[in-house]
Specification:
This is tRNA (Guanosine(18)-2'-O)-methyltransferase. With 167 residues, the protein is of the alpha/beta class. The protein has six helices and seven strands.
């Protein structure tokens, strides 16, 4: 083994040149675990903010540092918030399987995007779908026909970061 090799397990990340202008907006969810996993992943990806609706609680044991370092805003209804973000120049992209959804591997995200995450069982409701500029889906190769909401969000966050590695 090369004696000059040093393995750094937890090498600190380099600072982003500019903060990512991605916002994650979650429709009302049932699971505290899902929302906590989403907050943790969003923090790992240096996302600017997470918006949550409904009565879920973020579990600090699951979200870990994300619960402390990431701005999380709570709202009663998602539609008015999305309308305001759209006026501010954000592209609204739903993570949902729809007739016109695009494969996430071929979708060109814009730097200023709101990624809308649906409810675990019902997905994104019709009143929110009509507000979206686009929907993306992650290919599924077996049963069930969709990934868990938190898992799919992690995959979508990774794809956004792959397209914008410097922030």
């Amino acid at each position: 083994m090369d004696s000059d090799f040093e393995h750094l397990r937890h090498k600190p990340p380099t600072a982003l040149d500019q903060p990512r202008e991605l916002i994650v907006a979650c429709c009302p969810m049932r699971s505290n675990v899902n929302i906590s996993r989403i907050v943790r992943a969003a923090s790992c990806c240096a996302i600017s903010k997470v918006i949550v609706c409904g009565n879920v609680k973020i579990d600090p044991k699951i979200a870990r540092d994300g619960a402390e370092n990431l701005p999380v805003s709570r709202h009663r209804s998602l539609a008015p918030v999305l309308r305001d973000l759209k006026k501010d120049g954000y592209m609204l992209v739903g993570l949902e399987q729809t007739t016109n959804s695009q494969d996430i591997h071929h979708f060109p995200f814009q730097r200023k995007t709101v990624l809308v995450i649906g409810n675990e069982r019902q997905g994104i409701t019709d009143d929110i779908l009509v507000l979206l500029d686009a929907t993306v889906e992650i290919p599924v190769y077996g049963m069930p026909y969709s990934y868990n909401a938190a898992t799919a969000t992690c995959m979508a966050l990774y794809e956004f970061c792959r397209q914008f590695p410097e922030g």
